[in-house]
Specification:
This protein is of the alpha+beta class. Helices cover 36% and strands 23% of the residues.
Length: 254
């Protein structure tokens, strides 16, 4: 038998070449096995995550959107007993009735006592009209020397002449104005309010007193500083619904 010489260069090259391929094969096999194991583990992990996710989504959807479970559906179908009756309707009705009654009471109460028969109307004093109602137009004041509106009429008189109420009414105020002097304001009803100014201090009525048409309420004086140059007179102004009107046309409309 021929003895194999392991030191032969051809044999060494052959063995070395086969060993390289064996080593390569083993390495590839190990890599493949490791990859397969890792792949299987990844699949298991993904499957587990999907199941958990589905469970979470199902639970969250039911809670978030309020879809009833089977037990809740049965609870809805079941009739409820021993529930106290709602008394809101009765209470609301009583409250509405009370409110309506109160409104009717307020609406039927007169805000201002009207005068049943405002006539007769009389001039508060007989005399010449020395300064008429300007109806918003500017007129020159003798006392002030300037142009201004004259919101009443000036009736010439003698100091001490009696001043009478234009018609029935209630004394609203008695005041001493720094410009118009002693003034009496009478509410004559129906939106009429008369101002009797430039009076003497000795008035004959008091606040809240009811007066009749033609009743003496005071006397002419010289207390209106704003018209001192006009001579003795009564400054007589009337408001209708809060707006100054011509007293003469009101008393004598023709």
């Amino acid at each position: 038998m021929k003895k194999i010489n392991f030191s032969d260069s051809r044999f060494s090259k052959m063995v070395a070449g086969k060993g390289f391929y064996i080593t390569l094969f083993c390495s590839l096999l190990a890599i493949g096995v490791a990859a397969f194991i890792a792949y299987n583990r990844s699949l298991d992990r993904l499957s587990s995550d999907d199941q958990n996710l589905n469970m979470h989504v199902t639970t969250s959807s039911q809670n978030e959107w309020g879809f009833p479970n089977d037990d809740d559906a049965d609870a809805v179908d079941r009739k409820q007993h021993d529930i106290p009756k709602d008394t809101t309707t009765t209470t609301a009705t009583e409250a509405t009735t009370t409110t309506t009654s109160q409104k009717e009471t307020i609406s039927t109460k007169p805000a201002n006592k009207p005068i049943k028969n405002p006539q007769p109307m009389v001039m508060p004093i007989n005399g010449e009209i020395i300064n008429p109602f300007s109806d918003g137009e500017l007129v020159k004041s003798k006392t002030l020397g300037s142009w201004k509106t004259h919101d009443g009429v000036d009736i010439a008189a003698t100091i001490g002449d009696n001043v009478k109420s234009m018609t029935d009414g209630t004394v609203k105020a008695i005041k001493e104005d720094p410009l118009w002097g002693v003034c009496i304001v009478i509410d004559h009803g129906d939106g009429l309010e008369a101002h009797y100014c430039n009076l003497s201090a000795g008035v004959t009525v008091k606040v809240d007193q009811e007066v009749k048409a033609g009743q003496v309420i005071g006397s002419v004086g010289e207390t209106a500083e704003i018209e001192v140059e006009e001579g003795p007179h009564l400054h007589f102004g009337v408001k209708k619904d809060g707006k100054w009107v011509d007293p003469i046309k009101l008393i004598n409309p023709l």
